[in-house]
Design brief:
single chain; alpha+beta; 6-stranded mixed beta sheet; 4-stranded antiparallel beta sheet; elongated
Length: about 650
């Protein structure tokens, strides 16, 4: 930004003749490309604004269409992630651009505010064209937007664009693509390679981070624009390169890595347009041959990743040579084919071993910096999440957009594959399953009484005598359900209010003359309540036969409406599933429902025993009642009567 200001102020001081020449399309050839761009832009503003000094003293930064691949000449704005007036921070994704390779996030290089969007969503701009303007402060948004209306794209479009990077050989017998030092900010002139995230020979994927570059603003990841293999590193870690200078080479095929490697550093430099060190300095005397062993690279000496050429790997496999035991003589300790041949003949130096070194290259971000992709930062900001609390699954632990979506619940985590030999994961159902007719009816019934004022009372009932009776009558086909229905019907007979329902129209209490005990039965796909009619008047043998018939019809779906909709009192029994106690929801049109839990052994006082204690079996029953016509005392008296029948008058069930 400062460079642009100085360039513009210098331009304001030039003569009108020079300015007119620029407007006519003439730009002095002695200027650098960045100076040409500033000169053209300032010339444009010189003519369209009479108060030039005021205009250019306002702080403004252009957002230009970046080169997202080595062959990209224009890009399409897929979407703006920020609107005019929004605040932006350096490193924050501001737009998504469609290049000739893929859609990629583009980050802001400056802090400020979006003052003007020049290229709208869906529109295309040439690489280098200004697509938006950033104001340094919120107060300058209007002035920057006004200054940028109508001229930025014209000014940018007149800038001479650099030739596309050479692709397709550059002196090699294979297809190559150069990795250039990118402009990571609008003021960046050169960048320093902090670290390479890939080693020579490693495969790279478009969009994958391959190096970390230190600009004049911050350390940032730089992604590859091509798929292939890293064939050469021109600028090593810690070294500096000018913006636009090649720092590495990518080849399409793994076998081509050896071709680039065999060419040597001088061919690499000349093929990319760099001056060869040998050409720039007088030829030095050739060094005397040395018998010293080749110097080991850090990775090789530490026992880490073995760096070898494809030819070396092939020869090692054919000749049975262990790559880990060879000291490479190539650049950075890389193992060459000649090293393998020497090793096979017994003449190659062996490698010193080391332990406790990670086998994979690693990268640790600077202290206080959370490694995350641009889109992950945008999503986290929108969701108001702290990136530091999200575990990254990307390369080197980088937080990805999917990691943020998983943290917000927008996306489900990917299930890890089962380890070899481990049992296959259980496939569980997923997604929406619409209700069938029965489930819809159950759902509606459950909701129908949610507004009914209810109360619940519970009581423990001793079941020793009940269990003894069941053992006697079980051979006759009489079930526990039939015995419970008979006992409850006899108790309801003593307390008719429990067999009533509420009429909201009158309002009043509706008594039912018949005691019809409905019992909840779980069937495949739903819940239904077959009804034992007049249970108080029928003997347990008849009730047992009737119940067996009703259950059979329920399982086949052949119950008539009268056989499951005529209940006046409902029983829900989950005791057979080991449930100790639960509450049941009151069915519509009834005043009571009894929830029965499982039988449990309990220690109770007993004066007749030697220790004064004995073990008995008890079950907990919970009664839910409509409080509009049934009161707490009614429910308590009913449960007392039921307990008396099951504990003291069990023989009455057989009468």
């Amino acid at each position: 930004m400062e460079f642009s200001k100085r360039a513009c102020l210098i331009t304001l001081s030039v003569s009108c003749i020079t300015t007119n020449l620029i407007v006519d399309g003439f730009v002095p050839s002695s200027l650098l490309p960045s100076q040409k761009a500033s000169l053209i832009a300032s010339s444009f503003h010189y003519h369209r604004n009479t108060d030039q000094t005021k205009l250019w003293m306002s702080s403004m930064d252009p957002i230009r269409m970046p080169a997202l691949s080595s062959t990209m000449k224009e890009g399409k704005i897929v979407s703006w992630l920020k609107e005019e007036g929004d605040e932006v921070s350096a490193g924050e994704a501001i737009m998504v651009v469609e290049s000739d390779k893929a859609d990629m996030d583009v980050e802001a290089f400056e802090d400020g505010f979006i003052a003007k969007i020049i290229t709208d969503e869906g529109e295309t701009a040439t690489v280098g064209d200004i697509v938006a303007l950033i104001a340094e402060s919120e107060a300058e948004i209007e002035s920057v937007a006004a200054a940028g209306t109508g001229g930025e794209t014209s000014a940018a479009s007149t800038e001479e664009t650099a030739a596309a990077p050479a692709e397709g050989g550059g002196g090699y017998d294979c297809e190559t693509t150069e990795i250039f030092m990118p402009a990571l900010s609008s003021t960046m002139v050169e960048g320093k390679i902090v670290s390479w995230l890939k080693a020579v020979g490693d495969p790279v994927t478009a969009g994958e981070a391959i190096m970390v570059v230190e600009s004049d603003k911050a350390d940032m990841d730089v992604e590859a624009f091509e798929d292939g293999y890293l064939a050469a590193i021109i600028t090593d870690e810690g070294e500096t390169a000018e913006v636009g200078a090649p720092v590495g080479i990518i080849v399409e095929e793994e076998a081509d890595v050896a071709v680039v490697e065999a060419a040597g550093p001088l061919t690499i430099a000349s093929s990319t347009g760099l001056a060869s060190p040998a050409a720039a300095a007088p030829k030095a005397a050739a060094p005397k041959p040395s018998n010293a062993a080749p110097k080991l690279s850090a990775a090789a000496a530490s026992g880490g990743r073995v760096v070898a050429s494809p030819l070396a790997k092939k020869l090692a496999s054919e000749l049975g040579v262990d790559l880990a035991s060879i000291a490479g003589s190539g650049p950075g300790g890389r193992i060459t084919g000649a090293d393998i041949e020497k090793a096979a003949a017994g003449g190659a130096p062996t490698k010193k071993t080391a332990v406790d070194v990670p086998a994979e290259p690693s990268w640790v971000p600077a202290e206080g910096v959370v490694a995350a992709t641009p889109m992950a930062r945008v999503l986290a900001k929108k969701a108001k999440l702290n990136l530091g609390n999200i575990k990254g699954t990307g390369q080197f632990g980088r937080v990805t957009a999917d990691d943020v979506k998983i943290a917000t619940g927008e996306k489900k985590p990917v299930r890890k594959a089962a380890a070899p030999g481990a049992p296959a994961p259980v496939e569980l159902p997923e997604g929406l399953v619409p209700f069938d007719g029965m489930k819809k009816a159950v759902s509606n019934n459950m909701e129908a009484t949610l507004s009914t004022p209810i109360f619940r009372v519970s009581r423990d009932i001793q079941t020793d005598k009940f269990d003894e009776l069941y053992k006697k009558v079980k051979p006759d086909g009489i079930t526990v359900s039939a015995l419970l229905a008979k006992a409850v019907a006899m108790a309801v007979e003593k307390h008719p209010i429990m067999n009533s329902s509420f009429d909201p129209k009158t309002p009043g209490t509706v008594y039912n003359k018949d005691i019809n005990i409905a019992m909840a039965v779980a069937i495949d796909g739903g819940l239904i309540t077959p009804t034992l009619k007049n249970a108080n008047e029928r003997n347990i043998v008849e009730l047992g036969q009737n119940w067996k018939e009703l259950v059979g019809k329920a399982k086949t779906g052949s119950l008539t409406a009268d056989e499951f909709q005529s209940g006046t009192f409902t029983i829900s029994n989950l005791g057979m599933f080991g449930v100790s106690q639960f509450d049941a929801i009151l069915p519509p049109g009834q005043g009571s429902i009894l929830a029965i839990g499982g039988t449990q052994e309990k220690v109770v006082p007993d004066k007749s025993s030697i220790l004064g204690l004995k073990i008995v079996k008890k079950m907990t029953v919970t009664l839910t009642c409509d409080h509009r016509q049934i009161y707490g005392a009614d429910a308590a008296l009913f449960l007392r009567t039921l307990a008396d029948i099951m504990e003291n008058r069990i023989e009455s069930l057989t009468l």
